[in-house]
Each structure stands twice: as structure tokens, then as C-alpha cells.
Amino acid sequence: MYSIRRWVVRHARSVETAYRMFEPVVIKLAPFWNWVGYQRAEKPVGQVEKLSKELLFDCKMCGQCVLSATGMSCPMNCPKSMRNGPCGGVLQNGHCEVLPDKRCVWVDAWEGSQKMQGGDQIHAVQLPVDHRLQGSSSWLRVARKSSDDAPHNNQEGRDD
């Protein structure tokens, strides 16, 4: 899987494009997720998400995916779980000090982000990992958030 993960980072722009085509589909399915129930959809959608993201990104299913902000390099693959950049122990050759046979996740993240249209998102500070979301679907979370933020659900601006 490591070689696939490295390939994805090298082709971050193509993967970003594919994700930008996929995300609206998941969001458009929000009425379906509401009808089925997010709790009920969690298991099958989470399984599909896990299989696809494990294959491509060595995903750990943290439930708070930030791949679009990290050059398609998952920060959860960092042995020190660094969420906002390298630890300072990056070797001269760009490899990890803990796993010297592998490249630093954040060196890959920087290189991947330079290939992406939204590559400047790598400068955004990521929130700490909420371990309560471990194993949950970030795809459904995106759909739910989009549905909750939609104008018909927006409580601001109401006159009552």
C-alpha cells in the first residue's frame, strides 16, 4: 500500500480533481442519507470509504479527513501523529526519523500540495484529532454539514 500512497501524492492534482467530482455526488445524496438515516448509512458507507481510502491513502479512518489540505498525504500515517507539519526529526533525505525506510508524511504533503489547485490549504492549522470520531465516515459528515448549512436549513435571517 505504501507504493500506492506515494503514487497518489505524486498525482495529487489528478486525485484532487477526482475528489472534486466525487464530493458533489455525496452532497447531492444528502436527502437520501436523511431518508435512510445517517446512523443506518454509517456502516455501509463507512466500509466503502474505508476500503477505498485504505487502498489509496493508508487511511486510518480518523473521521476528520484533511487530505485535500495535506497534498493527499494522510497525516494519520505519521508515527508521531503530527497533524500540522513535521516534527523536526525529518532526516536529510526527507525520510522519517522513526521509520527511516519511509518518507516523512509531511514532506510528501508539501510536495503533493504544490501540485494541487488548492495547495495553499496546507497552511491552514488543523484542529486536534477528535478520537470520538475514529472509524466514522467523513464522507457522511461532509454531506450532513453541507445539508445543515444549506439555505433552507439556515436559521439566520429568519423574520419570526
Q: What's the quick description here?
A:
Helices cover 48% and strands 0% of the residues. It is mainly alpha-helical and 160 residues long.
Report the end-to-end length measured between terminal Cα atoms.
55 Å
* Beta-strand content bin: under 5%
Q: What is the rounded Rg? A: 17 Å
- Give the beta-strand count: 0
Secondary structure category: mainly alpha
Residue-averaged pLDDT, rounded? Answer: 91
User: Which geometry do the CA atoms define?
Assistant: elongated
Question: Low-confidence stretches at least 5 residues in length (pLDDT < 50)?
Answer: 155-160
The main sheet comes to: none
The ordered string of helix (H) and strand (E) elements is: HHHHHH
DSSP helix count?
6
Quaternary status of these chains?
single chain
Give the fraction of residues assigned to helices. 40-55%
What does this structure look like?
- The chain has 6 helices and no strands.
- It is mainly alpha-helical and 160 residues long.
- Helix 3 crosses helix 6.
- The C terminus is likely disordered.
Top keywords for this entry?
single chain, mainly alpha, 48% helix
Topology (elements, then pairings):
Layout: H1 2-10, H2 12-28, H3 30-36, H4 38-57, H5 105-115, H6 138-149
Helix pairs in contact: 1-5, 2-6, 3-4, 3-6, 4-6
